[in-house]
Amino acid sequence: MDEKSLMKKAKKTLKRWSASLDDLTDHLHADSDKAIGDFEKHKNDLNKWIDKASGKLKNAESLKDDEVDKLRSAYEELKSYASKKEVQTEEELKGQRENLSDNFEKFKNYLHEVYKDSENTAEGLSDKTKEKLEHFQTKFDLFKLRAEKMEGEAEGSWKEKKKELSGKIKELSEKIESNKEISSDMWDDFSDEMSVAWKHIRKAFKS
Q1: Which of 1, 10, 5 is nearest to 181 (CA)?
Q2: What's the predicted TM-score (pTM) here?
Q3: Is 197:172 a contact under the CB 8 Å cutoff?
Q4: What is the pLDDT of residue 117?
Q5: CA 63 to CA 72: how far, in whole Å?
Q6: Looking at the 3D structure of the chain, how many domains does it have?
């Protein structure tokens, strides 16, 4: 990849990372009494992504026909969970959240396996798709974490966790901001560093 193309890709990646952190911040600070609406929006976002991603399968030249058919079926199955009726109660929210989260995890792993095992593709899933999958998963983890921390008398525990997560997001945002004009010869090292940082922050949303 020439330097111009690399820097164009880098700028798009930095913009994508910033948008993901902004979205996590919005969800992190959402009012607890808006949890149902927040979850329904997440379902809607997931549905839109499924439609867009599955629509691109017809142009997936790197995959065999049977692999495309399997993936299309996997997308349709995931969509069936993301299209469940709108939740009305906290109990329904918990049930749908757990069901959709579990099936999304299975779908994500299956997607990775299909691309990894394909004889016709060398690169597998794009970085953009991998990031989108992880972002959806992190938001599922956030819904679960917030519900667990808010149970009973644990509201103080949630405030502490929210402060911790806010600090991690801010730190990562500042790192991205300070490297907006990064040079091409530094990009690979910075990208590797950010990959590790993303893993840490996603782990933090799991417990």
Answers
A1: 10
A2: 0.82
A3: yes
A4: 63
A5: 12
A6: 1
In the block, tokens 């990208």 appear at 191
- pLDDT (tens digit, 9 = 90+) per residue, 53-99? 888 887 777 677 888 888 888 889 889 988 888 888 888 888 988 88
Instruction: Give the integer Cα–Cα distance in Å for 61 and 120.
Output: 8
pLDDT at residue 54, rounded to an integer: 85
Residue type, 170: K
Residue count of the chain, please give it: 207
Q: Which residue range forms the structural domain that includes residue 76?
A: 3-26+35-204
* Residue that is written with structure tokens 């065999």 in the block: 64
Cβ–Cβ < 8 Å for 149, 171? no
- In this prediction, residue 125 carries a pLDDT of 66
pLDDT of amino acid 149: 76
118 neighbors 57 (Cβ within 8 angstroms): no
The Cα-based distances of 174 to 6, 43, 155 in angstroms read 22, 30, 28
Q: Return the residue matching tokens 């026909």.
A: 65
Structure tokens at 98: 């757990």
Q: Going by C-beta distance under 8 Å and a sequence separation of 6 or more, which residues neighbour residue 136?
A: 42, 45, 46, 49, 104
Specify whether the CB–CB gap between 157 and 147 falls below 8 A: no
Pairwise CA distance, residues 28 & 13, whole Å = 22
Low-confidence ranges of the chain (pLDDT < 70): 1, 62, 117-125, 151-155
